[in-house]
Write a structure and sequence with these properties.
Layout lengths: L5 E7 L1 E2 L4 E2 L1 H10 L2 E7 L3 H4 L2 H14 L4 E3 L1 E2 L6 H12 L6 E3 L1 H4 L9 H10 L3 E4 L8 H10 L5 E4 L10 H5 L5 E4 L6 H11 L4 E2 L9 H9 L5 H15 L6
Length: 250
Amino acid sequence: MNKTSFFDAHCHIGKTPYLEQKAEDLLNKMDQNNVEKAVICAFGSHIVCKNKEGNDFISDWVKKYPLRFVGFASVNPWYEAEAIIELKRSITELGLIGLKLHPVLQGFQANDKIVNPLIETAIQLNIPIFIHSGTPMYSLPLQIFDLAKKYPDGKFILGHMGGADFYFDIPTSFSKIDNVYLETSLTCHSGYVAEAINKIGYKRILFGSDSPVSEIDAELAKIRVLNLSDNEWLHITRLNIENLLLNNLN
């Protein structure tokens, strides 16, 4: 990966009743924006209930484009023991390298005890755990803060940095723990990213687009206007996610 390219920490392929993105379409957007690599996650029913089908789908595209995609598994904690088995299969057999949880779509509060076995399994597998945030009442930043504090050995990614309405819980609380990275897609404006860099540190900020929910060029523009140093820019747009995934990347 060359020094001027980006690593998008949050993209989707597949379809929902409202959105669809084919792998080829994502690759075109990546090429247009000099994104060399992207984390891809399940979408729609693949994240809610058809987890095995979704994980196979993501794995197939990672294997087809191993230099462009890395994949996160999705499992619903309501499936209990089956979810544990599927997560282990996705990591050890399918080659996926992270866990994506969406409490809103999957129907649990982010810090509910139902998710604990999956978190403990992810820690055993040494994979990062991406959790959607910013939607009441299921997925608030302070719920994820509580979960991360309970599991200090976990490596958590706070999707959307609390979104449009709950960013204000971020600077004071997440500066007190060191095992949560903040992903930038759909957070309300660039000033929130600047404050997070100032109070939490640039090495815990990850550029993500959430494509196709948002657009890569728009999310990159939010980072560009910050006038970051070369070192800050490089870490946020590439090195931080690369280092987080280092043990699992080829």
